[in-house]
Amino acid sequence: MEITCKSKFQSEITLRQGSLHIVGSFELIHKMNELKEKYGSNPVKWPELEKIKSADELLINEFILKCQSRFQLAYEHAELCHCRMVPAERVYDAIKQGCRTVNDIGRTTLAGTGCGSCRPDIEKLLKQFQFS
Question: What is the pTM of this model?
Answer without folding.
Answer: 0.86
